[in-house]
Structures are given as structure tokens and as C-alpha cells.
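sorry to bug you again but im stuck and you know this stuff better than me. what follows is a protein written twice so to speak, once as letters and once as C-alpha cells for the fold. mainly i need to know what kind of three dimensional shape the backbone takes. anything you notice is useful, everything is just below:
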Amino acid sequence: MDGEHSALSGVEREREKLPPIYHSSPPAGLGRGAKQPFPSLGTFISTLSQRRDGGGRGFAGGLTGTLTGIHGLRHGRELPPICSNVRQKQRLSIDTLPPEVKAPFPSDPIIPLRTKTTREFQEDMERAVQSGDWREVREFYLTTFDSFIEINAAFKREANGLFNTTEDSGVNAKFVSAVYDALLSTPQDIQKSVLKGIINSLLREWKGPRTKDDLRAYFILVQNPQYSSTSTYVIYAHLLRQIAALSEADHHFLVHWLKKLSARRFRQLVERLLQFISTRLFPAEPDDLPPLTKCSWWIPSATKVLSLFNAANSVSSPPIMPFTDFYNITLEHIDFMEEYRTWQSYGNSNRFSFCQFPFILSTVVKKAIIQKDSEQQMISQARQSLVSKVSRRQRVDMNLLFLNIKVRRAQLLSDSLDELMRKRCDLKKKLRVTFVGEAGLDMGGLTKEWFLLLVRQIFHTDYGMFTYMKDSRCHWFSSWKCDNYSEFQLVGTLMGLAVYNSIALDIHFPLYCYRKLLTPPTTPCDQNALVGMATATLDDLQQIMPELAHGLGELLSYEGNVEEDFYLTFQVFQEEMGVVRTYNLKPGGDKIPVTKQNRKEYVQLYADFLLNKSIYKQFAAFYHGFHSVCASDALMLLRPEEVEMLVCGSPELDMSALQKAAQYEGYSKTDSTVRCFWDVVLAFPLELQKKLLHFATGSDRVPVGGMADLNFKISKIEVPTDWLPISHTCFNQICLPPYRTRKELKHKLTIAISNAEGFGLE
């Protein structure tokens, strides 16, 4: 019903109050026939009374003629009262109806009363399977999916209840699951009737804003399992289009309803949407789908609906599924730079780009976008330099195309800092490292060695730049004050260069550090603007200082007298270079006692001081160093977890993939030593596999591109078999003596990897 209050005749008004009408069917059958004239209200009430006088509980089967046109009667379910006392009267006429029945009806239609329970439906299914008589099940599906009103009638816990909050959709989730779980096992004609009903519902002309009952219908329809087949994609696309076009307020409701779905159902719906997008982009049988030019709205609609699921996942604690499960790997094979340029040009306007919905782009795509964007900036700079040289008729030096770093091993840190500061305009160029006094061309090994040596030196506890937190096994910024924070800028620059040059660093920062790096994601134009000031919570402090966070948590939950028992003020004490200093958390904080009323403010200010204010200058230098290399709009596409993956690599190990990508020198993959090596490694527990990777590459993480990007090599070394294996981390290489037995190899390898020195960790 569209809710228009047009002037209707008395009979027409009463007709509008009845449930929706099906095409009527022949008295003896259940199939659909031509429409029959609608009965007058008097005839309907008369027949209704006669049926009740006959002692019938419902209306199925026995009624014929015009009554079969009312689908509520065909299902043996009671209709909603036409007025408050209609069921107590034996016979009513139009003239005896109360005035309120004749008045214009409200815009929200009255939902028919449907009493089918989950158990009754399951019993109907069991009888149908056993007997082969699907009539009752067929009629249920036929009626239920005929309109949005009927969908609500079947699945709403209370037919005319409001349920207009984000916390409760009012949907009987158990019943929805039972109906959908059974649907694909019903005969084909039932499944087709459901799809036809959905088409009829979606083709209705809507006027005005959607009601909560409409939202409920969309919420239920999107869970239909039939959309897994490409034959239903046209219907699915139209459903997604209507959901995508809903208002922001309606989307807000849907997000909160979606997060209440079971994890199994939620994952099914996400995977179905991802499959829909992939199939539309690269159909196995192009003729199965309409031409892409005629349905260009399919992918934007599906992606926008997928964003509702992503939002639901984000607001759930803990998340329903890992954020990486929203990646669509198919998008690694499209022209993602064209998507990026479209996004840069049009932003979040009506011009669709996958970059508007970065959750769907894998870290591989985002890394490639950052690198290509930086390359384009570098090429532009190099071109200007070359043109300038040529115009002045100067000799062109190809070193212009590289960031050439020359350092002495004995002065590694100071030389590196000087070189990077002096050549800060060349940071986006390809990195090439030379160690002074050593012959050799940098083919990647020297660059990686430079990174590894610098990281080991910078993060050593004696150096004092970073504090190693034993409880959380991570590093955090030292709060000591100095006049020059350029070394923190060097660390940020190193991290940016590692991302740009595809080198995973063995750095252990908490996730909060990467959130600070994205606050904001691009460097502000105003040099005085604050950077890295991410909102700090007790959960963030838990990542770094778990013992302190636990103590503050106990303060928040303390039931006694906070002021007298804790005797705290809005003041903190901090040790810096052996000297204890005091800082007020707010003006006059040393004179403000912490009470039960203000303890939340105290905890928030304490966390903010430790994670932001006390290290602001250190982190600001670090932030600007990182963004001096990775100055790209593409950083706006990244989550903190993805920045960590770009810098340090992925923690997900796949040793089978490493085996497939491995290269050999002096051995072949069929040699007994190599076969024993992989037998041992694949059987290792995860902890030993991580140690092996750290032993061979200097990091226990995998590059974003996967194991294949490691260029892992196993080489033969002609030494006695009582020697331990040797590694060259700069080249991701492990050297194995020709061990004769699996037992011997396992013993020697375990000793080697368990006693290898780590970088930056105690």
C-alpha cells in the first residue's frame, strides 16, 4: 500500500484495510489463475461469519469463489480484526461499522496476523519430504514473499509492533534461518515462486520515505540464499540497488541490525557480495549476464551494500570476521591506478571508484598504488632534472635516477642521517646503497643489510631512543627531551623507504603507533598543525603498558572511597634520564584530587599524556620522516593494521608457498637433503617456522606480496656435516651442508635457528 489518503468510497476504504490480494485460483487447485472481482465488504463479512459458525479454525481449502482471492484465507491463518469487536459479532454490515473504521487509514498498512512458528514450519517440511505433497509448504512460500507486508507478517515477532530501534530489528531470526535453510531443498517451482514474489515486491512504486517495516523486508530479503546463482543476479542487483539508495539514517539502522546476525550468516552474505562483484567483473560465461555497459550500476550498488557489512563488522567488538576477509582479490587484476586517478579527480562524488571503499582493496593493491604514485612523482622530478641538464648542455648522469646512499660501517648512523638529510629531495627515487671502501654493486643485498644494521643500532636499548616494553614485547618512544629530534625523523624515513623499496623491517611497534602515523593520513599544509595526536584510550595503553593499564582499570571499577584510598591528584611522575619529573595533567592538576566523579577524566588525560603529549616532538619528527617518503593520497586508503603490514610484513606464514617459490644453488629440489629440509620445516610448529624465517631473512614476517617476493634461496655449502646451517639475511639465503639423514638435518637446523641473534629485541 502506498499510504495515500485519497477519498475512497466506503467499500473501497474497507478493501484497503484487507491484506494484499493474490491472483485468485480455481477452487479445487493451488495454482494461480486470472484475477476475480473483489467481493464486497458485506459479502466478505457474511462469509466470514458463516465460516466461524461452522466451527472452522482457519480458512484454507474449504472456501471457494471470491474468497480464494484473499491470500490470508488460503493459508489457514486468521485475518487481523477489521475493527475491535468484529470477531464477537455474528453478522455485520457496512452501516453498523464503528466510525473509526470508516475514517482514513494511517499511512503504515496493517500487517496481517500470521501464526506459523519455526517448529510448525519444520514439521510441514518433514511431512512434505516424506509424503511428496508440497502444497502446504508451497502456499507458505508463495504468500510470504509476495510483498513487503507479507514478509513482515511472517517474520516480525509481533505483527504490528513498532520495533523502531537500532538495537532490535523485531525479526524472528530463528524463523528466517529455518525458512532460508530449507528453501534450496524445495522443488524448483517453489523456488521460482519465491523469486517471482521478490520481483513483484521490488517493482512496486514507492512514494515517500521507507518505513521500518520496509527496512525489515530488505534486511530479510538480502539473506536469501538463492542469490548465489548467476541466474538470479538480475534480481539480486535490483535488490542491492534499492538498499544502496536508502537514506543514511536507514543505512544506520541496517548496520546495527546486520551486526546481530550469526557469524555464519554474516560471513555467507559478505562472501556472496564479493562473489557477485568478482563475477560481474570477470564472468565465466559472459553471455550469462547482461552487457556491462547496460548494468554499470551493479558493482557500485553491491559495493555500497558491502560497505554496510563492513561498518557492522567495525562497530562489533570483537569484529565478526577479520577485516582482511573483506578484500576482493579479483581487484588485483583490474586497472587499479585508473580507479585511483578517478578517486583523486572526483573524490567521493557520484563517480564510482573502488578507492571510495578501500576496505575491499587488498594490501597488495594499496601497496602497488602507493609505490606507483611515488614512482610517478619520482619520474616527474627526474624528468625535470634531466630537462634542466640537457637545456644547459650538461652531461647527463644516470645516477640522477637513484637515491644513492654512501656510508661507512663505523659511522653508520651519523652517515645515514647526513646522507638522507642532504638528499631529502631524492627520497622517492630507487634506493641504492654503497659501503665506503667495499667493492660491489648493490643488487638488493646491500640495501637490505643497510636497513638491518640501522634497525639493530637504533633500537638497541643502550641508544636510548626507544624503550623496550618487556610485558608487551614492543618498543615505545623515550620521553627524554633534547634540542634535536632528527634521529627520530631518520627512523620515520627508514620506515617510508622500506615500504617504497619492498623491504620488511624487524620493527616491533604497537598498533597504536600506526594509528598515530595516519593522524592525519596526509601531511597538513600548515606546518604548525598538530600531527600524530590520535585519541588515546585505556585499550591503547593496554597494548604498550599492560600493567599500568590494568591498574587504571581497577581505579575505574573501584567501589570504595577513591579520593581517600588512592590519594591521587591530576599529576604524573615520569623518569627521564635518571631524573624524576612531575607534570600536571590539567592546569592546577597537583591541587585537584582524583574522585569517583572525575576518575574517568583522569584516566583519559593520563593515557593521552603518556601516548601523545609526553612524546609529541619525538613522534612529530618520526611522522614527518615517514611522510617525506610516503607522501601519497593513497595513505588515506589504509588502516593502521595495513600500514604495519607494509612496514613489517604479514604475520601469516605459508611454508608450502615458500617451498614452491624457493630457488636452489648447488642443489636441486629432488636432492635428498632438500627433500629432508622441507619435510622437517613443514612439520615444524609455527614458532620454529617463524624462527627459521627470521634466521634466513632477518624478519619473521612475510612481504605483502607473499612468500614469492622473498626470493628465498637454499644453497649448498661444501663443509663437514657436523657444521650448522649458515644464513645470509641480506640475500634471504640459507646454506646447508649435505646432511645425510632427516634426523641429523632437523637437529642441526633447530640448534641454528634457536640461537640466532634477533634485531632490536631482547
Notes: Residues 1-106, 758-762 have pLDDT under 50 and may be disordered.
